[in-house]
Amino acid sequence: MPGVYISYPFCRQKCTFCNFGSGVAGPDAVFRYERALLAELRAQNWPWIPNTVYFGGGTPSLISSDLLDKLTEAIPGRRWAEATLECAPGTVTPERAADWLASGINRISLGVQSFITGELRQTGRTHTAETVESDVAMLRQAGLTNINIDLIVGLSGQTAASWEQSLDWIARLDPPHVSVYIFEVDEDSHLGNEILLEGVRYGARRVPSDDLVAQFYERAVDRLAQLGWNRYEISNFARPGDESRHNLKYWRLEPYLGFGLDAHSFDGGERWANTDSLEAYITQPLSHADRTATDPSEERFFVGLRLAEGITPAPGEWQRFSQPIARWVEAGMLEKDGPQLRLTPAAVLLSNEIFQDFLHA
């Protein structure tokens, strides 16, 4: 079944770890963007009725209740099987939670990242662990019980002890879904760029080593498994039946339409995207990039192997990719299980290198 992604790229502050095309903007730019986004949605000739919707950002929890209702009303099938709103801790109120539910939202993804005050302040975040605890209670009181909590491994100042404290909070709050992302060092975030420049700002000298990051990640895998959250994708853990239906579409190559700044779309055979220029999008919200045909076999290996269940290659794919498959099986990074092919536990942190081997093979 297809899905819909809505991009709301505005935040109250730009976090040091963030490498997304989001940030702070003035009220005029926000107003013009919201008007363009609504126009793009209303102009869509829907080829199908979606069963999942995902509001990503940025901070979509800052969208006014009136606008959110108009946006969801413009998408067919309201009361979808799953409709997620990304939410910054501290933006939840009982009134907002009730309005989200009334607009068709039934899943909240809280961008917590850490429960440790020192680590949060280093990123620019202002919330506390107690803020998150209060938010979760308000969401549950409103009837929004399908909650995800995001954590990041590799933040400045993070230690084995502080990471264990964040995992303790996960156990205490008991959300049905947890995401654990590894901080990416690249020039698109303030912290990543500072590390590449060998600077000291944003706590760049206090970022844990790659070996420590790997240990923290593996500790999360073990601890979450003990608590009942199974890893079903490299960065995602859920109680049985609570996996993100929308995000599974990306990894299973199911179709979705994206709306808003830098939003991507996929129809099962081709990909296309909106501009990543805010002014260009506001001026021409109905202009999309040229479509690019995909190689289904390459994509199945590149994307599908992220899933713990792995993939079921077709006979021709076993033959086409016989060399990289044999190489990584011999290295202990891939394993065969009848018709299935999947990453081994040891391969998860080397997965990008493995995936690249299946491109243009």
In short:
The chain is of the alpha/beta class and 361 residues long. 38% of the residues lie in helices and 18% in strands. The model has no long low-confidence stretch (mean pLDDT 91).
What does this structure look like?
With 361 residues, this protein is an alpha/beta fold. The protein has two domains: 249 residues, Aldolase class I (TIM Barrel); 67 residues, Arc Repressor Mutant, subunit A. Helices cover 38% and strands 18% of the residues. It has 14 helices and 14 strands. It has a nine-stranded mixed sheet, sandwiched between helices. Strands 10-11-12 form a three-stranded antiparallel sheet, with no helix packed on it. The chain has a two-stranded antiparallel ribbon with strand order 13-14. Helix 3 packs across helix 5 and helix 6 runs parallel beside helix 8. The protein is globular, with a radius of gyration of 21 Å. It starts with a strand and ends in a 5-residue tail after the last helix.
Name its key features.
361 residues, TIM Barrel, 2 domains, 14 strands, globular
Please estimate the helix content.
Answer: 25-40%
pLDDT below 50 for ≥5 consecutive residues: which ranges?
A: none
Report the CATH superfamily of the largest domain.
Answer: Aldolase class I
Number of strands: 14
The tally of structural domains comes to 2
- Spatial arrangement of strands, main beta sheet: 7-8-6-5-4-3-2-1-9
Write down the secondary-structure element order: EHEHEHEHHEHEHHEEHEEEHEHHHEEH
The CATH architecture classification of the largest domain is: Alpha-Beta Barrel
Q: Which CATH class of the largest domain applies here?
A: Alpha Beta
Strand content: 15-25%
Please describe the biggest sheet, giving its number of strands, its sense, and whether it closes into a barrel.
Answer: 9 strands, mixed
- Which radius of gyration do the C-alpha atoms yield? 21 Å
